[in-house]
Amino acid sequence: MARTVTGWVGWVWFGAFCLLTVGLFNVVSGLIAVFSEDKVLAWSGQGVTIVDVSTWGWVHLILGAAMVALGLVLFTGAAWARWTASVLVVLNLVAQFVSLPITPWWSLAVIVLDVVVLWALIVHGEEVERAVS
User: Fold this and answer.
1) Is 65 part of a structural domain of the chain?
2) Where do the DUF7144 domain residues begin and end (predicted)?
3) What is the dihedral of CA 118, 108, 22, 24, to 10 degrees?
4) Domain housing 90
């Protein structure tokens, strides 16, 4: 029995747009952090340490560029892009949780978008393949 394409496929397109948005957010915040000379105090097992923000900037910049590229590929309906994007979104969730003490509101906004993207890709991702082909 062939499964039909439902209206939920729009959520995957919305998820792809959100992935592009999250990727652009990461690129912007990554560029700001890379060129920033700020240092942040953080607690570690050995006490207080000074963390260079530019290191996390490179992580956000690279992750964001990959997310933008995958967001564009998602519009083709490729299954590999869906699963790769899901992995990148989970990695971005972890990066945003680590960044919560530094940029709490920005990180929370990106976390919410990440959850929406993950839900759309996992729950309704197969419908995009059927809609495109």
Assistant:
1) yes
2) 11-125
3) -170
4) 7-130
Residue 1, domain member (yes or no): no
In a domain, 39, yes or no: yes
Which of 70, 73, 111 shows the shortest CA–CA distance to 88? 70
d(CA 87, CA 82): 9
Residue type, 64: G
- Residue 2 domain-assigned? no
Token pair for 67 = 């997310």
Of residues 29, 52, 48, the one with CA closest to residue 39 = 52
Q: What domain count does the chain have? A: 1
pLDDT in tens, the chain (133 residues): 456 667 777 877 888 888 898 889 889 988 888 887 766 555 566 766 666 677 778 888 999 999 899 989 988 888 888 899 899 989 989 988 888 877 789 889 989 988 988 888 888 777 777 777 6
